[in-house]
């Protein structure tokens, strides 16, 4: 099942890239494996998938040691400060930095580990009450704060569009996020590194690719629906 699903997702990615005149290599597929057992991740790994996304620190701690060393992990969920120590240096990218206090904790832990941690800033792009992410008008200040931290590298922006059955509903939010990235590019020390747009999930990843996504986060379409935990 996972093999077929990955193949179908890949075909849809290719078609969306073709439609929007983008090279396939400009989009990375994150297989969101949250709540799924390591055996299923291994199945995807054996199909060639290397990049996985999780939203609980505990799951990464448990799954990482049982998967091959070249598996790449991204943290995509709401991050509590007391969990930062489990992730810094363990994940290639933290997508969900939404406050100065969280960034300060990542800085502290990264400094201790002697590394630079790559992160994205999560934007509450539709200013939804129920959503994580910094408000759009707070992002500039948060970026400035992070840019001043020597052990953090901000690589771009992340957002989750409001829930909808129609992927077209996500389009204006995705294009807002892209515009925000371009506007902020000239305010960072390494503009060529501030280039990642993490947006698009199972329901709207093709729209996200058309709007410039460089990282798409796809769970259900690869692993099937999740049991509530
Ligand atoms: C769970 C999750 C996804 C994947 O959602 P699907 O609809 O299953 O593809 C993507 N992004 C975030 C932040 C998530 O928490």
Could you list the spans in which at least 5 consecutive residues all have pLDDT below 50? none
Helix content: 25-40%
Provide the CATH topology. TIM Barrel
- The strand count comes to 8
Sheet with most strands: strand arrangement: 7-6-5-4-3-2-1-8
Whole-number total of structural domains = 1
Topology:
Layout: H1 2-19, E1 28-32, H2 38-46, E2 51-54, H3 57-63, E3 72-75, H4 84-87, E4 93-97, H5 100-113, E5 117-122, H6 139-147, E6 152-158, H7 171-185, E7 196-198, H8 205-210, E8 215-218, H9 220-223
Parallel strand pairs: 1-2, 1-8, 2-3, 3-4, 4-5, 5-6, 6-7
The chain binds pyridoxal-5'-phosphate.
Summarize the structure.
This protein is about 40% helix and about 15% strand. It has 9 helices and 8 strands. It has helices at about 1-20, 40-45, 55-65, 85, 100-115, 140-145, 170-185, 205-210, 220-225; strands spanning about 30, 50-55, 70-75, 95, 115-120, 150-160, 195-200, 215-220.
What does this structure look like?
The protein has 229 residues and is an alpha/beta fold. It has a single domain (2-222), classed as TIM Barrel (Alpha-Beta Barrel). It is 38% helix and 17% strand. The chain has an 8-stranded parallel β-sheet. The protein is globular. The chain starts with a helix and ends in a 6-residue tail after the last helix. Bound molecules: pyridoxal-5'-phosphate. Pyridoxal-5'-phosphate binds next to strand 8 and helix 9. Pyridoxal-5'-phosphate is lined by residues 32, 34, 55, 76-77, 160, 201-203, 217-221.
């Amino acid at each position: 099942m996972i093999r077929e699903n990955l193949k179908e997702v890949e075909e849809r990615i290719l078609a969306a890239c073709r439609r929007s005149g983008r090279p396939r290599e400009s989009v990375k597929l994150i297989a969101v494996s949250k709540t799924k057992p390591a055996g299923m991740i291994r199945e995807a790994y054996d199909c060639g998938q290397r990049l996985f996304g999780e939203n609980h620190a505990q799951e990464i701690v448990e799954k990482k040691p049982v998967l091959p060393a070249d598996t790449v992990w991204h943290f995509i969920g709401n991050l509590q400060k007391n969990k930062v120590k489990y992730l810094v240096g363990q994940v290639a990218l933290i997508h969900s930095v939404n406050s100065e206090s969280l960034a300060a904790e990542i800085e502290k832990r990264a400094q201790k580990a002697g590394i630079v941690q790559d992160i994205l800033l999560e934007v509450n792009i539709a200013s939804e009450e129920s959503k994580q992410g910094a408000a759009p008008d707070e992002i500039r200040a948060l970026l400035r704060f992070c840019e001043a931290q020597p052990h953090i590298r901000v690589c771009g922006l992340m957002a989750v569009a409001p829930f909808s059955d129609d992927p077209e509903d996500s389009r204006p939010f995705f294009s807002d996020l892209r515009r925000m990235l371009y506007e902020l590019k000239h305010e960072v020390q390494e503009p060529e590194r501030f280039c990642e747009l993490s947006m698009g999930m199972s329901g709207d990843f093709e729209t996200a690719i058309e709007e410039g996504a460089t990282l798409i986060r796809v769970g259900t379409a690869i692993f099937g629906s999740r049991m509530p935990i």
